[in-house]
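The instructor's notes for this session suggest beginning with a concrete chain rather than abstract definitions. Hand out the sequence below and ask the class to guess, before any prediction is shown, which regions might be ordered.
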Amino acid sequence: MRSEARFEGRTGMLEGKKKGRHGLPDTESPDSPVPDAMGRLLALLGKQVGLGGVDRIWIFPPLIKGRKEWGLVAVSCLTEDPGQRSLFTGSYVAEITGTGVLFVPQIVSEGSAPPDRLPAVMDGVVRRSGLRLSFPREVEIGGDAVRFRRILVEYGWEEDREPPVGP
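After discussion, reveal the predicted structure:
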């Protein structure tokens, strides 16, 4: 599933980043050119899977090159079987253009796994990426929609804002 949407956002510039593999910067940067991009992706994921069904979120630090940013999130969701979690990944490319901000999200259902195996899966994502990703921030939500909304706000999504139309 892919969708492309333009939205207005605050802007900032980053310069002088050393390029790594695939033309991406060697490491992530704390200075996002599109500060609400991760919040936007999390809002889309929450809308798709339901806020009350989210068990854990792994938020990988975004990679930034100039006015372009790539982000990745993994979400485990509660299922009827307490020994299983469904896993979704969300990624985005956000870029400042001459006409505003381009935001291209993608959300994929990855299947299911026992919850105790998911941290090792996230570690494997980091090791195999070839992009020098940092380890993700793991946030326990435990099906608490209020906790999920706090994470949205922390990542730049306004609390009373409706989730965007997405993939």
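Then share the key points. Residues 5-154 form one domain. The chain is about 20% helix and 35% strand.
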